[in-house]
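Hello everyone,

My group is preparing for a crystallization screen and wants a predicted model to guide construct design. The compound we'll soak is pyridoxal-5'-phosphate. Before spending weeks at the bench, it would help to have a computed complex in hand. I've included the protein sequence and the ligand's SMILES below. Output in structure-token form would be ideal because that's what our pipeline reads.
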Amino acid sequence: MSETILEIQLPNLRHNFSFLKKTINSNTKILAVVKAFGYGSDAIAIAECLANEGADYFGVAYVHEGIQLRKAGITQPILVLHPQMANLDKLIAHQLEPSMYSIRLLNAMIEAAQRANASAYPVHIKFNTGLNRLGFLPDKTEALLNTLEANKKWVNPLGVFSHLAASDDPKEASFTQSQLAKFALIEKRFRTHYPNILAHVLNTSGVVNHATFQYDMVRTGISLYGYGNAAEVDKELKPVLSLKTVVSQIHQLKGGDSLGYNRALIASKPIKTATLPLGHADGIGRIYGNGKGFVWIHGQKAPIIGNVCMDMIMVDITHIDCEEGDAVTVIGPDASAENLANAAGTISYEFITGLSQRIKRKLIH
Ligand SMILES: *Cc1c(COP(=O)(O)O)cnc(C)c1O
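Reply:
Good plan to model first. Here are the tokens for the complex, ready for your pipeline.
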């Protein structure tokens, strides 16, 4: 190991995909969410691998993310979860399927379809059943069905969907049930008008905790990358990302010496520190500094001490027998990103999507 590398274990991705496939009904489609560079990994590599494994759909947040996949040759349908009005012409040009979450956006989409002379362009209608983030309110269902009927020459609701607010939280099970009940009524109304519509509501934790509501498709992200938001699911999954680095330099500090910017640490006794070549510009936020975060050297835990710098962190190796040039693991199969993130009060999603493009990616086939 001679520099910081983010390894992307495609065999683990295939394992997670097949675990998920076994968990759901054989006729339920899988939409693999590859937004935000494939949760911080490499969206194209992930999508190419999962296309081979039989993913039915891909999901991204923004239009340019979908265009990247098209340019890489991905031919599966791609749902754009949060399209912006400014990009609808491009969206059509690249045959991406937009989520329609407001009447303003739907009207703009109808106009874009007219400009492109598209006929019955596929869209997915997004309902807000309680997350209060994006979507039509359930009481707009009838008005929306009328609008869609009046504009069927231009747009075709291929899908109807919603998103759960707390699918991972057993304490919120009754709230989740209320969201699912609202969605069931909407789905029924759309099904009457569009018998073949694709209904989808479950994300990863939805699949884990509310599997009876899989409808026609599930939208799964984090589980593909190896995290299931629950210990008993994590057991079955294999982390796809391994972040490895190296000891650049070792320092011996005397009692009273300070470490790093703002002298955030003053050694109370002699300590040994290692400087590593990754920092907040790589995605190790300042929140991980001052003893909250940690890395692993020769299987032993080394806390991140002092303030996180832009390009470096320092770790406490007083208790570890190691040398300059030795390998360091930040996350990996035996060093869960979930545990690291939790130690700093955040979640695996934020840690892995925050891994910056500066870090070299290495695909393991
Ligand atoms: C990101 C996202 C998902 C994927 O969620 P996971 O918890 O990663 O499975 C599904 N649906 C929507 C609308 C999303 O924004």
